[in-house]
Structure formats: structure tokens, C-alpha cells
């Protein structure tokens, strides 16, 4: 008999808007932090020990924040807003100074993707001004690397993921489009390596496991589509995960490759074993759409948390399957 689904270990309130994006910075930190971006234009930085915000960055003058991340090398904060800006913030010495900004021109909801190629150099990918355009630049120089536009009309770019294969070749980028297509781009060659139709509806979200060369994507339909890359970098569609209710906002894989979490339009977070995509738990707490999910990067895997942000303006924190249980 399966165990009942747990309750959140605690919740965070006071963001003042729907929680579009979450990002942890716990690895090696005395005070583990959670960054949240909300529709009211603010980025809250939560101390997970005190469970209170240590700082609120009014990042995008009231425009919805759709993505946040931090640079591991410097601890600087990156935030993306519906004001068409990506901002870089210096958080050192307790301050909050705007260091630089990048104008994207994109009116969509596609979240940026960051790849830290070295301690001093990073790649940032974002949807551009044209409907199907993806731009990649270097940070901090902001030098353009390339612009990726598919030959076929696929509609708006919806979600992207930059990553670098262990083989040592240049960075690759996965992109989901409005017509349901998934494309794998070679950034160095500016060419499409593979293309499949993963969904009949727009690809709302995707995530990818570079160690296992496996990915999964979600849309407004009642399924998750899983896929893998073969030795020739062709995207091969695999099994689908049928959901009870339609609509997935975001999906994420835990660092150890054991768990997958999905943020549902039905107010629920669903947990699956990443290896076999076996359903493990349905987390019920929120009273509106769950918009974001993220696993923490604690050094001790027994401390790993799952955070879920909702349109109900609350963040729930969960401790699940951290004791070596079979997840499959």
C-alpha cells in the first residue's frame, strides 16, 4: 500500500503576486536561499533558515518577472521581466546594484537559459524580437554569439535549454515551439541537428538531463512527452506520461536523476520516478495554478527540498524521497 502524500514542511507568503519562477542557491551557503520572481515585478530573496525574505529587489518596475537565476562564480542575480529586459544585479555586501541589462525585444513568456562556460564567461540564450528567433550572447561582454531562426514556420519560441555535452563539442540548445515541435540546435554551427513533433499543442515547458541524454516536455494537453538523444544527436520520442488533468506550467529533474516534478494547471504538483516515469505522489496544497517548481542544490542530498510557486501567491516547500527509497 502506497504511503499518503506528505504535507509541505512550510510555506512562504508575502510575494504579493503569482510566483512565475523559482531558483535555489543553497550549495555551500551558510544561509540557504530561494529566489522567487512574481507578476508584480519583484524578486524576493528568502532565507530558508528564518523563512523570511532578506531582500526584495524591485527588478522590473512592476512588469512581471518570468525568470531568475544566479551566477555560481560571482553570486550575481539575473532576472528577466515582461518589460523586455534581462537585468544583472550585484548582491554583494548586502546591497543590490544594477550592473547591466540586456534588451530582448521578446513579448512572449519564454524563459532565458544560462550556461556558465567558465568562471568569467557565460552564455545567455533568450527569445528575440522576431517570432521564432533565439539569440545567444556572451556575458558579461554582451557580445553576440549567434541568432537561431528555423527555416520552417513553427510559430513562437516557447521554451529553451542551453547545455554542453560531456564529449567536449560546443554547446547545444533545445527549443520548443508554438506548433509543438522540438528542435536541437548546434550553437557553433548555427544549424538544426534534429527536429520532432512532440506535441499537438504549443510546448509550454521542457527540461533535459545531460548525463542521461533524456528530456521531457509538457503542453496544455493531458500528457508529458519524453524523449532521448541517440548517438547521432537525433531526438527520439519515447513513452508519454498520461496526466489526470490537462496543462503543465513547468517541469524539473532533481540533481541526482531520481525524481521529476511537474507544476500543474490543476493546482497540483506531481512527482514521478525519472528512470521509469512511474507516478509516485500528487502534492495538493495550492488553491490555484502551480506555475513553477524547483529542486534545491543542498550539498547534503538528505536536505534537498522541492519548492512550488503558485498563482495563489504562496510558495510551498516539500521534503520528499530523500532517504534512499525506491523511486523507479
From TrEMBL:
It comes from Austrofundulus limnaeus (Annual killifish). The lineage of its organism: Eukaryota, Metazoa, Chordata, Craniata, Vertebrata. WD repeats lie at residues 30-56, 196-237, 283-320. Pfam families: WD40. Keywords: Repeat, WD repeat. This is Guanine nucleotide-binding protein subunit beta-like protein 1. SUPFAM superfamilies: WD40 repeat-like (SSF50978). PROSITE patterns: WD_REPEATS_1, WD_REPEATS_2, WD_REPEATS_REGION. InterPro entries: WD40/YVTN_repeat-like_dom_sf, WD40_repeat_CS, WD40_repeat_dom_sf, WD40_rpt.
Amino acid at each position: 500500500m502506497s504511503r499518503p502524500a506528505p504535507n509541505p514542511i512550510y510555506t512562504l507568503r508575502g510575494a504579493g503576486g503569482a510566483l512565475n519562477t523559482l531558483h535555489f542557491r543553497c550549495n555551500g551557503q551558510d544561509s540557504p536561499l530561494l529566489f522567487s520572481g512574481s507578476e508584480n515585478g519583484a524578486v524576493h530573496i528568502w532565507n530558508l533558515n528564518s523563512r523570511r525574505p532578506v531582500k526584495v529587489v524591485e527588478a522590473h518596475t512592476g512588469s512581471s518577472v518570468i525568470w531568475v537565476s544566479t551566477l555560481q562564480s560571482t553570486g550575481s542575480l539575473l532576472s528577466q521581466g515582461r518589460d523586455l529586459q534581462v537585468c544583472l544585479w550585484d548582491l554583494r555586501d548586502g546591497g543590490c546594484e544594477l550592473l547591466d541589462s540586456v534588451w530582448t525585444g521578446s513579448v512572449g513568456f519564454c524563459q532565458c537559459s544560462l550556461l556558465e562556460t567558465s568562471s568569467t564567461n557565460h552564455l545567455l540564450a533568450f527569445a528575440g524580437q522576431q517570432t521564432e528567433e533565439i539569440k545567444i550572447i556572451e556575458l558579461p561582454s554582451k557580445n553576440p554569439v549567434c541568432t537561431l531562426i528555423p527555416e520552417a514556420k513553427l510559430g513562437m519560441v516557447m521554451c529553451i535549454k542551453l547545455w554542453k555535452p560531456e564529449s567536449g563539442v560546443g554547446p547545444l540548445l533545445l527549443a520548443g515551439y508554438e506548433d509543438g515541435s522540438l528542435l536541437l540546435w548546434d550553437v557553433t554551427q548555427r544549424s538544426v541537428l534534429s527536429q520532432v513533433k512532440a506535441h499537438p499543442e504549443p510546448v509550454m515547458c521542457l527540461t533535459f538531463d545531460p548525463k542521461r541524454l533524456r528530456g521531457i516536455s509538457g503542453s496544455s494537453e493531458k500528457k508529458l512527452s519524453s524523449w532521448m538523444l541517440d548517438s547521432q544527436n537525433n531526438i527520439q520520442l519515447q513513452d508519454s506520461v498520461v496526466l489526470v488533468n490537462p496543462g503543465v506550467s513547468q517541469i524539473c529533474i532533481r540533481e541526482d536523476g531520481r525524481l521529476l516534478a511537474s507544476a500543474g494547471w490543476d493546482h497540483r504538483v506531481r512527482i514521478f520516478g525519472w528512470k521509469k516515469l512511474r507516478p509516485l505522489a500528487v502534492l495538493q496544497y495550492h488553491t490555484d495554478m502551480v506555475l513553477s517548481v524547483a529542486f534545491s542544490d543542498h550539498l547534503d542530498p538528505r536536505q534537498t527540498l522541492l519548492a512550488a510557486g503558485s498563482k495563489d501567491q504562496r510558495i510551498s516547500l516539500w521534503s520528499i524521497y530523500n532517504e534512499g527509497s525506491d523511486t523507479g
